[in-house]
Each structure stands twice: as C-alpha cells, then as structure tokens.
Write a structure and sequence with these properties.
six-stranded parallel β-sheet, 17% strand, 17 strands, Rossmann fold, elongated, 395 residues, alpha/beta
Length: 395
C-alpha cells in the first residue's frame, strides 16, 4: 500500500504536487478543464491543512523553441485561479533564480504553478528522460512530494520518479481513485466480465488483449483494429485500416479464444475520412474495394448490446468508430447510451474514449472515467507504473 497525502503532517510544509494539466487549448482558451477540476481535491486538502503548494505539470510536446508559446501553462494558471477562488502565482520558468525566490517567499495557503515541465526537453530531454540533476533540483523546492498525475504515471520522468527519488512521497486523491476503480476490473472482477476494445492499431493493444482475454468472458472488438481481425478472418476490408504486422496475432487469438472474441457483423463505410464523404452501411462481407470501414453498424450495436446487458463489469478502451466525425460516431454514441442504462460497473479508459463519453454527455453516467489513457492501458496489461512504484510504501 502506497502512502497517500493523508499520511503526512502538512502544516507549514511546502508540498510539491505533480498534477496533470495537459488540457486542450485553442486560441489561448481551455476547451476542456476536466483534468484541472480533477486535481482540486488534493490541492485543497493540502491548503486546508496548512501547506503551501507548488504545482508541476507538462502540456503537449516540446520539440523545438516554437512549441513553447503554444504550450505555456499560463492559461491554466488563470483557470485554476478561478476554480480555487484565489490567486495562483505563475512562474514562467522551470528553474532558476526567479523560481527559487518565489518558492522561498511562498506562505502557507498560497499556490504556485511552475511553467511546463517539458520546456526542459529542449535541452537533451531532461524531463522525459528523467535527468537525475533536474529531479534533484525540483525536489529541493519542497518538503513533501505528492504524485497526482495519473495520466503520466506510466512514464518515468524527472517530475515524478526523479522528485520521488529525493523526497518523502505519497499519492493524491486522483491517483487513489484511479487505482481503486481500475482494480474493479483487474482484481477478481465480477462475472460476466466484458471488455470493449476499439481504437486504431492492434499492435498498440497486443499486451492488453493477451492479458484481458484470459480474464474476461467476452471481448468485443470495434474501431480501426476490428478490420485487421476481419482481414485475418478472410474478409475483404477495402481501404480500411490494416495493421498487417498483427495479422498472425489476430489469427492466433481467434483460434484460441473463438468463444470470447466478438467481431462486428456490419460496417459503416466512407470513401474518404471527412464530413462530405458518401456513407454506406454494409455487411462486413460486402465492403467494397474503394471503401474505408469507419464505424460499426446497427446490427453490430445490437449484437454487442446482448453481451453488455448481461455483464456485471465492463471495461471500454478505444472508440468503436471514427467518432470525431459525426457520420461515424453513431456506434460509439449508441454503446455509451446502452451502457448508461446497464446494471453493471463500467470503467471507461482514458484518452479518446473518455473524451467521447464526456463530449456526448455521459460524464457522470459510469462508475469511472479514467483521466489516463496510456496509464490505464498499461495497468490493464498487468504492468507496473513507474510514477506509482516510486512512491514510498506505507509501513
């Protein structure tokens, strides 16, 4: 059992919290502040218990100097200030005299947000490469480290593993919630246990398939990856997404688990991936050579519904269609609606699936919507997460 923020005396301490403020920003405006809101419980707990708070987060990817301006955390500091109802001190640097002085002058009850940790990646990927000197420097800014960024817990970065290697550490309420809810599917789930897997490439989810197919009762496959399975079964998939290197794997899985793996029986197709393309809905055996399969059809929705309605636990990772385009979002929308009415524990994996659930109005309809796509995926694979493994154990 890992230490949590509750295990520390926080009064008059400087608490460094690694949060996940990797939010979408368009024209300087945050379009979805869910990840910021999810951090509030831990931040407020620290403030209420007499601490000052130093926040670290990444935003986007920084590969060249021009990436910095569009990935500044300054807009996040404004939104966080509104949500907390107090000033958030924003320091537009990741290290140096300005940051040192602001931290030194920080009083109990105050909040400071450091600029995007990935600015450090411009100089030899010091953040994402877990540079030990950088981790030690960031650790020197505080007395206690709390990791509450589940979205990066599957990565060993200077801002999580690096700091925890040099400071007393625990997890925050968000990571605790993620682990507790994901354990519903990982540790002896109630049966029938059903997994929906979508998304694009089979190769991205081989580990998840291998791990979960032995545990689940049914594995419903949609999205782009379904067409590789259908190709492996001998169907013509036209110009649909094909992960050719995974064909043998798909054949092997279908041979060994034919009673568990459920594939689409119909497909919504377009000749191009855009709003203007002509749409057809056909049996999976009738996809034309110039068509791209982009969603599951109504017969597949009804087929999947049969399995979902008798399930006690459902885990869903990856949309079952190209849900960013309205014409190809119906399969994902219909399954969300069906699951919202089911009497079962439903865990929605992070990333695109979580975004779809929230955007289509189902934010509060399920047991849990994860904030971390990659992290939840690796947990479902049975892997250990470096950002959590580095945290001190409770004695």
């Amino acid at each position: 059992m890992k230490k949590t923020v509750r295990d520390f005396d926080l009064k008059d301490k400087k608490v460094i919290i690694r949060v996940d403020f990797n939010v979408p920003i368009k024209d300087g405006e945050i379009t979805d502040d869910n990840r910021i809101r999810e951090s509030l419980k831990t931040i407020n707990y620290c403030l209420d218990n007499g601490a000052s708070v130093i926040l670290l987060s990444h935003l986007g990817r920084i590969k060249e100097e021009s990436d910095k301006a569009k990935n500044s955390l300054e807009p996040v500091s404004f939104r966080l200030s509104e949500l907390l109802g107090k000033e958030v001190i924003f320091v537009d640097e990741t290290r140096g005299d300005l940051l040192d002085n602001e931290v030194a002058n920080l009083s109990s009850g105050e909040v400071l947000l450091v600029q995007n940790t990935r600015y450090e990646d411009l100089d030899g990927k010091k953040e994402s490469g877990n540079d030990p000197e950088l981790g030690k420097y960031w650790a020197s800014l505080g007395d206690i480290f709390i990791n509450d960024a589940f979205g990066t817990a599957h990565r060993a970065h200077a801002s999580n593993v690096g700091i925890a290697s040099n400071l007393d550490s625990g997890i925050g309420f968000l990571i605790e919630k993620e682990l507790n809810n994901l354990s519903i599917a990982i540790d002896n789930p109630k049966i029938p246990f059903t997994v929906i897997l979508g998304g694009s490439k089979v190769s991205d989810k081989i580990g998840v398939i291998e791990n979960l197919v032995t545990k689940c009762d049914y594995l419903l496959i949609g999205g782009g990856m379904a067409y590789t399975f259908l190709k492996a079964k001998g169907y013509n998939i036209g110009k649909s997404l094909l992960d050719s290197e995974s064909l043998d794997f798909c054949k092997k899985m279908m041979d060994e688990y034919s009673d568990k793996i459920i594939l689409p029986v119909d497909s919504v197709n377009g000749k191009d991936i855009n709003d203007d393309t002509e749409v057809t809905e056909t049996s999976v055996s009738d996809i034309k050579s110039d068509e791209i399969g982009l969603d599951i059809g109504l017969k597949t929705v009804m087929l999947f519904k049969e399995y979902l309605e008798k399930s006690k636990v459902v885990v869903w990772n990856g949309p079952v269609g190209y849900s960013e385009i309205d014409k190809f979002s119906n399969g994902t929308k219909e399954l969300l609606y069906i699951l919202s009415k089911c009497d079962c524990d439903t865990i929605i994996g992070g990333g695109d699936t979580a975004a779809a659930a929230i955007n289509f109005g189902y934010k509060d309809a399920f047991t849990h919507i994860s904030t971390g796509g990659g992290a939840s995926l690796e947990l479902l694979e049975g892997k250990k997460l470096p950002g959590i493994e580095c945290i001190q154990d409770r004695k």
